[in-house]
Amino acid sequence: MGARIRSRLTDWTVIAPLVAIVALVLSWGRKLPLPLVIVVALCLAAAVLAAVHHAEVVAHRIGEPFGSLVLAVAVTVIEVALIVTLMADGGAKSATLARDTVFAAVMITCNGILGVSLLVGALRHRVAVFNAEGAGAALATVATLATLSLVLPTFTTSRPGPEFSPAQLAFAGVASLVLYGLFVAMQTYRHRDYFLPVKQGADEHAEPPSSGAAWFSLAFLLVALVAVVGDAKVVSPAIEAGVDHAGLPHAVVGVVIALLVLLPETLAAVRAALRDRIQTSLNLALGSAMASIGLTIPAIALASIWLPGTLVLGLGSTHLVLLALTVVTGVLTVVPGRATPLQGGVHLALFASFIFLAVNP
């Protein structure tokens, strides 16, 4: 037993998050020169890989769809803390940070992660097969949450500009939280079979880890995710400086932060697709999009009581078109319950369009 514990403690998946936490503590609140920013970024990357490993251990122990849910919710909770922290710094640019980050998360998950998962799975196994009932329910929930939180503020008239009034923001926050809770209840209890992989991979027959190993991995998953989001916050001033120096729109900052924070889900989804567990990939992609909205908007609604400045949530016309096209394409993708590389390529084209238009609006 002692040898097993020592072996765990010397594993790179344990050392990497701890080193990343040390880097976070030593660099927090300081202006770092470029070489140290690179060091923190490398620690962040190592923590991402460690988080994926620990998430897979936990998922193997508790099974689907709980494993995907644990990773999605854990990342999103810490992402919310990062957004609130950045908004608390104040400034006119922080007014759109929540909107930019949440919308970027939706585009990354519903087009980037979903697209690359379908492409990889279909190329490796000819056709990517998944459960249409579960994927369809998740996509419908994402579309509703995105419309309530990011589309309606553009058209409401109680406040000038794409803003909610306090009462409207409170309603959107409560509705988002209730809808997300309802989906989780359906996913984990009443209709759990809708979210299980259609095909069983080799890992289904492997001996699951012990309870002790699962709890150990859960603890270090949380440590790794704190390190990922915290180190992302540390490097964000360098990101903002680079964006400003390049003359790019400030919205690019939200895109980069979302890309960094969602790296664990991306790697986990691709690895699941390679094992022909496409439903797990879709659970991660759509579940992360849902959690990003369903948990972020209520938290921002509550935090707006004491946060300085205004809160702009409404999307512009270009992003409204991208969101609408994403929803329509997503429906056509999930309804058949199977996808070829073409569907993956279509979603990746939408993701590439989002990135290009963020840089060159």
From TrEMBL:
In Gene Ontology terms, what is one molecular function of this protein?
Answer: potassium:proton antiporter activity
**Swiss-Prot/TrEMBL keywords:** Membrane, Transmembrane, Transmembrane helix
Q: What is its main location?
A: membrane
Q: Would you name any one GO CC term?
A: plasma membrane
Q: Which residues cross the membrane?
A: 12-28, 34-54, 66-87, 102-123, 135-155, 167-189, 210-230, 250-270, 282-307, 313-335, 342-359
The record, for InterPro entries, names: Alkaline_pH_Ca-Antiporter, NaCa_Exmemb
Q: Where in the cell is it found?
A: Membrane
**Residue stretches making up the Sodium/calcium exchanger membrane region domain:** 36-188, 217-358
Any coiled-coil regions, as ranges: none
> Which superkingdom?
Bacteria
Mode of membrane association: Multi-pass membrane protein
Query: PANTHER family attached here?
Result: SODIUM-POTASSIUM/PROTON ANTIPORTER CHAA, SODIUM-POTASSIUM_PROTON ANTIPORTER CHAA
Name of this chain's protein: Ionic transporter integral membrane protein
From which organism does this entry originate? Amycolatopsis methanolica 239
Species lineage: Bacteria, Bacillati, Actinomycetota, Actinomycetes, Pseudonocardiales
